[in-house]
Amino acid sequence: MTTETARTEPAQVQELDRVTIRFAGDSGDGMQLTGNQFTRTAAVFGNDISTLPDFPAEIRAPAGSLPGVSGFQLSFSSGDIHTPGDQPDVLVAMNPAALKTNLGDLPPGGALIVNSDAFSQQNLNKAAYASNPLTDGSLKQYNVFEIPISTLNARALEDLEMTSKQVDLTKNFFALGIMFWLYERSMEPTLRWIDGKFGARPVIAEANRRALKAGYAFGETTEIFHTTYRVAAAHLSPGTYRNITGNEATALGFVTAARLAGRDLFYGSYPITPASDILHQLSGYKNFGVKTFQAEDEISAIGAAIGASYGGAMGLTASSGPGIALKTEALGLAVMVELPLVVVDVQRAGPSTGMPTKTEQADLLQVMFGRNSDSPVPIVAPATPAECFDYAVEAWRIALKYVTPVVYLSDAFLATGAEPWRVPDVADLPAIAVENYTDAATFHPYDRDPETLARPWAVPGTPGLEHRIGGLEKQDITGNVSYDPDNHHRMQALRAQKVAGIANDIPPLQALGPERGDLLVLGWGSTYGAIRSAVERLQAEGWSVAHAHLRHLNPFPLNTGEILARYRQVLIPEVNLGQLLMLIRARYLIDAKGLNRVRGKPFRISEIHESAVEILSSKRGTGR
Amino acid sequence: MTDEQAAENGLKSPPAGAGNGAGGPAATESTGAAGTPLPTVPLSRKDFVSDQEVRWCPGCGDYSILAQTQKTMPDFGYPREKIVFISGIGCSGRLPYYMNTYGFHTIHGRAPTLATGLKGARPDLMVWVITGDGDALSIGGNHVLHSMRRNVDIKLVMFNNRIYGLTKGQASPTSEIGKKTKSTPQGTIDTPISPLSVALAAEATFVARSVDTHTEHLQQTFNRAGRHHGSAFLEVLQNCNIFNDGAFRDFTDREVREDRMLMLEHGKPMIFGKDRDRGIRLNGLHPEVVQLGNGVTEEQLLVHDEEAEDPYLAFMLSRMWYPEFPVPVGVLRRVQRATHHELLEGQIADAVSKNGEGDLQKLLVSGETWVVD
User: Which residue in chain B has the smallest CA separation from A257?
Assistant: First the structure.
């Protein structure tokens, strides 16, 4: 609090390790922006953070309606945290609909800040409230702060030349100001952001500044809050940090991979939620030589990426489940012609259009098997938003070394969730060696590197290497079209061996916890945070439990079977109906148990904790 | 087609000196910039014949198209390694295997998408797309539209035999209405589309038609398509002697072609007929066939203008079909517009001049950052 006027100290300051806040309002109320501003501020302060945006697929559902509610939950902490929190400590509800859809998650005693101005009869009707919850006693078990945010905000902006609608659009910053005061946060990062964003529109900038400061001053001068809260900075390892979402980290990882490989990145994409941000991001990196192509459809997007890879560039495409379904045939072509390619699947709830803005991890079997014939593709899956960077690079390392398409599985939670990321020093990152074949004397299109089984990547423009590739089965070595039965069998086996062999080139699976024990909780993808937190809690309670998280899903790390065998039981929590579970059971013949919830939301720590306790307790002779 | 066979037998491996890996043959210079290849060692048709056995049905029109393709290739001055043939699925899709260039036999209908990515990544290459009426207008219709509207610098050759040949004889999007095929025993109920109308509607900058058996015209048209800067759409009327024999015979046969086809020539009045005594005149908004003489003079005839900025004349020509009209062949439209790769590279150059060459470390630490000691 250096640049602001001195704070009036409230009656009480309470030290907390961790706070979870949820902002909820109409999708026109700017809740995502509000949440992001608080997140940045907490991150810059040095807290560990984790966020969960939750917004409707409709851009503007009718104002005040239940489907139009948009929420943003963030957790910030002085310790290491892995999830955006099971339940909010504070719920900010900007209208009755937001209250109705979010109140169920607020624990008794939780703080509830409501914009009382929004509780008109009309809005209550829209939210299907028979009576006003602010007056009918139904909120007794919460710590309710009724604040006429709209009115107070409008008063603060009175003399500005703005329409009342424009004024109303700034009330989210009033609410943000209150929260900044309540949690002893500086307004500076947001004030800077306002200047950058609205610099060209001084009236709007001034309005937002005033709204923020008015909210802050309100907290300071009124006496409705008796306590403010202090969450100290976390002890993160030294380095330069920034706050990053999974999609941002993914895009940066790809640009970095292109630099490390010394190749141009060619990104073919068709807009789809929640993958579109990767296109938005990469299209801004043209000065890095990134070529982006917004295709006419998903098929064209992957086709163009394959074409670019054929030409020696790094062909990349991204989509979500429905788009991946459309890309399937072309992905099979990439398997057949054995060209480097990375396909990103930012998974969302399905099937079909499903719930486009909600998370799920149910495309694992789709990308594993969803092509005609045996068509093996390596699969990587980052576990956290920051890890998206590392696995974008890893996907390309595999694609280029093994000359193969690779699938990169993210999901809506990873893509839009954020956490602090320690920015790597580019100079420390290992280069990705890439070679194109040039020797005409020894060239055979389907001759293979004895170690990697990769075929030579020979690009057009190389004299003497003119050759033809395609989707028809190829003769081993020569690459000529072949219908020979034994050759087909050999080629199918070679393609499978090539992918299986990557297991020798990836890190072993690590179990965090006792080396042997009663239970291993095995996960993949965005369940990492919830599993990790649940297992830490179980360990603290004295249970014999470990956590292992797969980042390579095809092939599995070589020691996977060995790790699984060290624990009496294996629990696999997944936001699907048991996909990794099926692969693990089939591959390792163990009686692993699934914990499966598909609610379009990430796991709660408590769900995994409960399930683990149940398994552990049912085992005689085990336990604490 | 014994000449093709002979040529193949004589050429089992790349010609001597065609590349040793260390920079290639001395005479094979790279183009440096897109569009204007530098001269190279003169190549001949034989240099473009691959060692693969041609496997189309004997008598198929594809043999002639392949031969004219191979004959035309040396004219462009590109070394073989700079030429890529990309095809989809169908009988036409096999053509890249027979060309001793780079080739990619892709999946059904999607060849333009791979070509778009390839040309985007490698503007130095000459990229041909080989497709058929089913591949280009049915399953791949969307990609044809969009590659043309983007003016991707590819040369798309569509073999139109008005039938599905490789799947053994089903109706295609260009099959005439009422046509009885294996899949339409009572006749197809789907109105056919005109490939050239589609190409024009998709803003193609080069639109032309030729015929498999008119070898000289086909070569000329290939030549002009190959030299066009931007998307070229070339329809080749091609006879499938197995499943749709004689589809175009009524106007392409030697004895009748002059009376039933209109050879388009830029800047020339639209005259046709063995005796060059008939022409096309505009009557209101409609073309009509007129007999020259009796007060009808050449001056009243439409003059072909392939460079017309507006597409009305070209569109009108794309609708003319035998027997109401002579079938136009040649270049209907040829206009200039910036190509996709030029615009793409232009944006990259703009971004570099505005923001400088990308500094990766700077990019990674952009936004709000903080340091933990």
Answer: B360
